[in-house]
Amino acid sequence: MTATHRCLILTPTGEDGALIREAFTSDGLTAKVCSDVPDLCRELRGGVGAVVVAEEAVTAAHAAEIRGLLDEEPAWSVVPFVMLMSSGEGDDAHRIVDLFGMHAKVTLIERPCRAATLTSAVRVALHARERQYEIRSLLERLESQAKELSRSNDDLHRFASAASHDLQEPLRMISSYLGLIQTRSVNLEENLRKHLTYAIAGASRMNGLITSMLEYASVGSAEPELTTFPAAEAVAEALANLRLKIDEVKPAIDIAELSTITADKTLIVQLFQNIIGNAIKYRSETPRIS
Hints:
Strand order of the largest sheet: 2-1-3-4-5
Low-confidence stretches: none
Order of helices and strands: EHEHEHEHEHHEHHEEHE
CATH architecture of the largest domain: 3-Layer(aba) Sandwich
């Protein structure tokens, strides 16, 4: 049994407290009788599930002392108090409730009361307190996951930056040699020259994607670079990037009239490329993409 499942008892006399503890113990509850308010405050610091207090055992000064301790509680914590009152109505009741502040949930029970009534109220209080600690555990897990996600994002940004730098140099060499072949080979067949043009254009587009990835890695989660452009341009670039697959599969591609949009063009090209690429990958025997 943890400290958060126990009940603290504060009454004017030890005999009253012992009777209440005996009733709780016989009903399976863990309880401790506190000798005075300082003793109660010491026990509160160790964690508690609920507190049962007799009205006459707590003066205004005592309540202020308890409230000062409760104000140190974290935001998720609201300690349940069961206050035994000679009268649970009127200004006195509201005054007692207000004295304990926002970090206490006070339930008033009029005396005399049956032991079962008091035990039932304490069980409800303990259950509510248990839910609070479950919320605390959830908050701690969420905080831990947020930290882990932040670390993962940092690792991803570092990887993207390193990969972009590492890819740029070999791609630059490929583009240079392709350009050199194109300018010096005047007797190439028409098909070879066309494929060479496609390769150079593809390398140029790849360089643009790498540059965009490098820029993203350098600024983290920055806002996208918004421009206004015809959506058909993004589709055309996506189709150009997929030319090898399209030439292999030869799907029928129907492109409807598209409007002008405002967005990050690189991201929209990637979006269309993913959509069309998946359509080609999961195609029927007679593929048609619209």
